[in-house]
Design a protein that fits this description.
- This protein is α+β, with helices and mostly antiparallel strands and 161 residues long.
- The strands form 2 sheets. A 5-stranded antiparallel beta sheet has the order 1-2-3-4-5.
């Protein structure tokens, strides 16, 4: 029975980390990320990370839909990070980060798109890391003056305290 999750070989995993470095300037490979974690990909293009210790005991003949931490989605040779993925990458990122105000953060957590003027979006491209103060809230993409929100519906906050 084929596995739904495929463990990426070292070349494929390095390619993923290379895309991350190119997009956000975060050198996970240089930090030894692949010494501690394995990367898995499902048929939908979702990427998961799992401790190398756990990866060693998973039987590749088992049909598994997910394991470890949902990290990102891979589409058309670009990566959209999950909320947790943005927190892992964000600590070492140096570019393509957009900072939100308190009011924008509240709107973002409710699932709303954020209007972004041209001056503020200058130099930003592709998927962006969304940050409020020092906290990474996920990733978004600029389109027609708006920051598109990818926070899943089940993780949105209906009311702010």
């Amino acid at each position: 029975m084929p596995t739904e999750l495929k463990f990426l070989n070292s070349r494929e995993a390095r390619e993923i980390l290379s895309l991350i470095k190119e997009q956000w300037g975060c050198g996970l490979y240089e930090e030894g990320f692949l010494d501690r974690f394995s990367i898995m990909k499902n048929k939908k293009g979702n990427l998961f990370i799992i401790s190398k210790d756990i990866a060693r005991i998973i039987n590749p003949k088992l049909k598994i839909d997910s394991a470890g931490l949902y990290f990102a989605e891979m589409k058309n040779n670009s990566i959209r990070l999950s909320i947790e993925g943005s927190q892992i990458v964000g600590r070492g990122a140096g570019r393509n980060i957009i900072d939100l105000s308190g009011a924008e953060c509240a709107a973002w957590m409710k699932g709303e798109e954020i209007p972004v003027d041209e001056k503020r979006s200058e130099g930003l491209s592709g998927y962006l890391l969304v940050r409020f103060e020092k906290k990474f809230l996920g990733s978004g993409r600029l389109k027609e003056g708006n920051l598109l929100n990818f926070v899943p519906k089940v993780r949105r906050i209906k009311e702010m305290w």
